[in-house]
Amino acid sequence: MFSKRSSMLALLVLLFALTVLPRAAFAGSGPDKPSPVNNIVPEGLITPDLYEKEQQRSHERKLREAEARKQRGEIVAQATVLAVPGISQHPCGAYCAQAATQSVLHYKGQRSYTLDQIRGWENPGNVGCSSGAGTCLLPIRDTLNARVPGLPWAGFYEAIRLNHNSLNAAAYDLEAKTKNTAGTYRMPLIALVNPNPPDGTPYCLPGWCGGTTSAGHYLTINGYDGTYNGSDASAAIYYRDSWYNPADQHWANTNNFADAIYYKDGNGSCTTARYNLIW
């Protein structure tokens, strides 16, 4: 009798270990409760820019074309919102970069690539929801230039750092880059942000206020409205946030959105220049 009871007890313990414990061990990392810190990379990690010369040529072309439009008296539309689809990063808490990339791909009609495939290009060795590794910025730019069909020209996307002389300077620069890319070329941008910066300002992005203050996150910018003059009410940035499920359309005033970039300051981009925008 004792041996039968011992065998039954051992069986019950084994069943408990196989069913209850795995769920408990992974609570907080599954589709219901993904990690809120979704793009954190090791401090000091630097990725080399393999396309620096191509990027310089793209930058110079954008400046030349902008000057030519100015000379012709062309005016950028007051408001533009591109029909960029929202892509959710879930159930993978660290897939915000891949979701942002996929939203641009889908916008241009390329729907063949899964989030895991994109992850393999942008963050090789860290594919799968079990990895919480963040994604560096340059591989995102390079994936867009290599995989997005119908770019205005080869190597169109460029990694830059917004003007960081002040928050207002960053906001003016953000508006200029957004109007150039989304308004003129009809292409989305990708920004590296802290959506709830603990900097003493009243600014935080919708859905993030009151939450974690240390997140790194990539957002897809798909439009703008108004003309920025320094005030909150003057202009807005439209964007897709993959943290939402579904990743529906959002907007924030230009000061608000610029502050999310300004405070993050390019940390986590893995670049010595601390790039924070792909345009």
Descriptive notes:
Helices cover 38% and strands 12% of the residues. It is an alpha+beta fold and 279 residues long. The protein has 2 domains: 30 residues; 227 residues, Cysteine proteinases (Cathepsin B, Chain A, Alpha-Beta Complex), CATH 3.90.70. Strand 5 and strand 6 form a beta hairpin. The longest helix is centred in the first third of the chain and has 24 residues. The N and C termini lie far apart (75 Å). The N terminus is likely disordered.
Per CATH, the superfamily of the largest domain is Cysteine proteinases
Query: How far is the first residue's CA from the last residue's CA?
Result: 75 Å
Unreliable segments of 5+ consecutive residues: 1-37
- Judging from the principal axes of the Cα atoms, what is the shape? globular
Largest sheet: 7 strands, antiparallel
Give the % helix.
25-40%
What would you say the CATH architecture of the largest domain is? Alpha-Beta Complex
Task: Please identify the structural class as seen in this structure.
Answer: alpha+beta
CATH topology of the largest domain: Cathepsin B, Chain A
Helices and strands, in order, run as HHEHHHEHEEEEHE
In total, the number of strands is 7
| Mean pLDDT value | 87
Taken together, the total number of domains comes to: 2
What share of the residues does DSSP label as strand, in percent?
5-15%
